[in-house]
């Protein structure tokens, strides 16, 4: 068996989160077994790093969403990314959320002000969406990270 | 009171799954159809209100559905199964003792929670499951599983209960049993209800008043157990590990009617492989198999044909190399030319644990060889999909394949089906 190098290079932006495809986890270390010489590492064996757990602490309420638009490129959420959405978190002002408005899903930053809630893009091209009634839209979940494949 | 059970039941589960990822369906009537888009197997409240009946053939309700703008879905078990798993994961946070009773119902043993605010606890489940998964639920709590079922049913029906009912007070239990028709009690059913009506037993409460001897005589020991549970005496424990099934049936209606033996053989071979895979998954072997073949239930009487054939096997097995040829031989024996067939299937029975199989004295021992081959097939199929390795007789045409023209995306199990956000 070979040693495995974890491809978790530090990225410029802290919010970036890299998940290995299909949620496979990588062994932290491996040992070969030889007759007669018990490996000293077996006493220290640990569970492999589970990137699913790292991505979200609550798998039952975590869903993946494909990003299509460019309205959040200021927050480094690009078309083609997978957004990791956790429904177990209560959305509050300042969080990036997945909302359902005007018959479609959208990812925006939630801003709660006195008179209404706003879904704010991070791209100058788009103006904020004002929501001042329950029919105006719903927050589906909170975006807790993204995955991008190079 | 010494024991406590909660029954958490998802409301209109399949319809709720579709809604969870498509909020435009909120408040709209939804029906979900069985395999092959045959019958209605799930309805949203709005569809129920339109008078669409459970089990109604789709062709009978199609006009009404189109007129009323009912949203129609083919059953998407891959998606529903994943949502069911998520609900169960949430429920596991509430108790380590969880019985997943069906795809949309779970029993929770709350045995040690006597001094907890049960109402608040149950309300917490009622609030949290839909918030985290999008699936609304009803929660019933009482001292036995059967009473928890009663509580759950009323929790759904009563506006005052609003999805949660805790039945621990004897006066409340009595009132609930008086409001529950005996046929609606878990384990009683319509047939017994008719019989019981002859003796003046109409409600669950009426049943609890009858002497044990009467109940045992008319409803066997199983009915007695139900009556005792209704009286608050726990008789049915939580089944945390699923019991190996005593028989397994794999069948499916064809996508179109078939007349040729060869096409039906393809379907039966595929069902047999599925069935054998299920057998091996629960580490069992079967001693007998039954093959059945039928025309449409809606055909004219002279065009109807139903038949089946049971084959006793030399020794119990789960090997496809034995089961597939045996099943096909049985099929050839009952096949008649000139009918338009709608369905075939296989039922395996006489199921024994694989490690207790006695070998017949007079047959060559292929067991070791077969077992190794089956293991190889199982691991290939689980890694590369069920169709990655198949027998020639299964064919590649798939004339019998299911129709599911209203299939929703597999939102949670396939990358290409994820919801898309702008």
UniProtKB/TrEMBL annotation, chain A:
InterPro entries: LexA-like, LexA/Signal_pep-like_sf, LexA_repressor, Peptidase_S24_LexA, Peptidase_S24_S26A/B/C
Presence of the UniProt keyword Cytoplasm in the record: no
Entry keywords, A to Z: Autocatalytic cleavage, DNA damage, DNA repair, Hydrolase, SOS response
Peptidase S24/S26A/S26B/S26C domain sequence ranges: 27-144
Pfam family, one: Peptidase_S24
Family membership: Belongs to the peptidase S24 family.
Name of the protein described by the UniProt record: LexA family protein
UniProtKB/TrEMBL annotation, chain B:
Coiled-coil residue windows: none
Domain UmuC: 5-189
Keyword terms of this UniProt record: DNA damage, DNA repair, SOS mutagenesis, SOS response
UniProt keyword Glycosyltransferase present: no
Keyword Endoplasmic reticulum: no
Record family assignment: Belongs to the DNA polymerase type-Y family.
Full protein name: Y-family DNA polymerase
